[in-house]
Amino acid sequence: MKQDTDMNRRRFLGQAAAAAGLAVAPGVMLYEVQARPAGEAATSKQRWGMLIDTTKCEVGCNDCVTACKTENGWGASETKSSTEQQAQWIRKVKLTDKQTGHVQSLPLMCQHCETPPCVDVCPTGASMKRADGIVLVDKHICIGCRYCMMACPYKARSFIHESLSGQKAHAPRGLGTVESCTLCVHRVDKDGTPACVESCNAKGHKAMYFGDLNDPNSEISKRLKEFGGQQIRADLGLNTGVRYQGL
Amino acid sequence: MKAIRYREIDGNSLGYFALVGILGLIVAAGGLAALYMEHNGHWVTGMTNQVVWGMPHVFAVFLIVAASGALNVASISSVFNKKAYKPLAPLSAILAVCLLLGGLTVLVLDLGQPDRLVVAMTKYNFKSIFAWNMILYNGFIAIVAVYIWLMMERKMNVYSKYAGFAAFFWRLILTTGTGSIFGFIVARQAYDAAIMAPMFVIMSFAYGLAVFMLVMMASYKWSGRELGEGTIQRMKSLLGVFIGAVLYFLLAYHLTNLYGTENHGVEAFLLVDGGIYTKLFWYGTILIGCLAPLFLIFCRFTKNSNTAIVIACILVILGGLSQMYVIIIGGQAYPMEMFPGKIVESGFFDGGVKSYTPTLAETLLGLGGFALALIMVSLAVKVLRCLPVSMADKDVDPHYKAEAK
Amino acid sequence: MVYLQRHIRKLVTLVGLGILLSLSLTSQAADLKPVIPTAKGGQCVEKTDVMRKNHMEFILHQRNDTLRRGIRTSKHSLKECIECHNAPANDGKVARISEKDHFCSSCHTFAAVKIDCFECHADKPEAAQYRTSAKGGH
Known about the structure:
The structure holds 3 protein chains of 3 kinds. Chain A is α+β, with helices and mostly antiparallel strands. In chain A, 29% of the residues lie in helices and 16% in strands.
């Protein structure tokens, strides 16, 4: 019964969103309807996810990576670290089929697993998953053991090898702790979209979609329902929040 | 059998001070290396975001594995009731604790935030095998400390057996935990195998016994006490059996991997074309760490020579370090299989084999841990009555008869 | 842990106050006292004495709420502390945490309580410029 009520409410909200969307510019409508008040905690009603259409992702385009660097302040901050030691929250990967020579391109970052191996192995609980599915590092209690980096199947995490300064106010990061893609949690909490997705749209590629996987009416859910989507290393059964099309 | 008399070593010879002095220097160098790494950050090491665990972990894991194995002699006396091993049980337990402390020190000093050790001790994620290990390591030290006390306090001797049992089971679980650090990692091809846990247990038997035999033979030789051939011969045969078991487990591990096509890549890397890792595996682990010691232990020309046995023990330790390097570094150097059937390229070193070159600092830190363990043992035999005055065959094992030569 | 820390802090504060008192008696030592920079207008989110005693509890609580639960109220957030307490001076510039006239370091240097907040967190409002070009230490 209660579930029905929830369903109805969600449907109603969806319709209201659609209605508002007609009235206001797209994008703005999301702010109006879904915004969670600052004092309210994130809940498991939502599960934030991302869908990447590899057929639209251009080989050689690096806009999502650049946008992430600018937004979160990594990339130029490490001056002493070697390239292998520098942080990398998101990277572009080029795939060439060994048999056919078919070339694909895709951005790879933290896949925000439902059952993240990094969270399992973290001795202190610094590696954590929020109720809405965003996987983060609590750098306050991260001891820098790097076990999460050993356990991550996507090599999505970076360790900070030197003292930093000039961090962004919304993206604290520093020496001796591990970090990774936060799904731009500071933007998501204000009902925004991750910087990478925004930049991909701005470029006109529209290869990245961000949204609520729990909401059947969200664009990401609808697209996943219609076109399907794969997980990288689906064999591990991690139920990733980031899905790919055309992989 | 006569009652065993224990006495501290004199420890005032020039040789003793030289030993402690040299070990002290290595410990100091390791300490300075740790300070240097902590002050600058890990950019001064060879460890990267591609190879996240390096030389300190090779030494730390080796020491922790060897620690539980060093308890062999005590376990054999308490659990399996072999009288011949009893006199040396206290030394065995003390060495176990010292090795563990040495390994843990290295592990802690390599952390990105070593000063947050208190966080690691107060916040536990019980799904993490690392968190379990912290309990297992601390518990091991506590249990073995009680065990040592029960063994050394005459009035309490009768109870030492129970503590011995507890310590034996605890050390099995402990090494299972250490092996599972790698066994539980699903992400990497070289790990993710249940055999890691028992393989680490078997390796601990061999590495720990090799370290113990060296410490024992050095203690007796340098303190001018008598160590009977019976004791040495018995232990070296046991060491031979353990080495054989290590070989068996390595064979089972690689054969299992070789059967499945998906693992052919990583096996080819480790066994055929992995450069340093392939060399370390065949020359380091197999030749130096297993075959050569087996030869020295069982060949009729060398088996009665103490020098040959000392060399065999050293080779087992070198082989052990080499195998740790292959498992820990080699396992990370091989690229993770994310996109089967594809050539993978990226700006973050995807697809290719990762390189790792240890720096002096991290190697010194590892060596420092080793030296720390040994210096603690050297001090322990000086202040504690843990070493029997005589281990001559007539005193501890009157029935031992040397084989006809 | 927290309990112990609080007692240690109390002790440190007491000792600090004792030193302060004895120093204030000797006029030549007056310049050793921390010069606490003024904040951007108005009253702080809590009373000054409450803040002096409990600011660490407030931001500790807030950090868990924000990071782990996504609660982003600004009342006790470190970011908001910095917005007001390290607001640009007349020259439009701000201090670094490594400098004595940064609000946090002014007291923390004096009380010899090492903080590592700013190894990760920004020590200035997002838009503000540093007064000096030296690289910030900690």
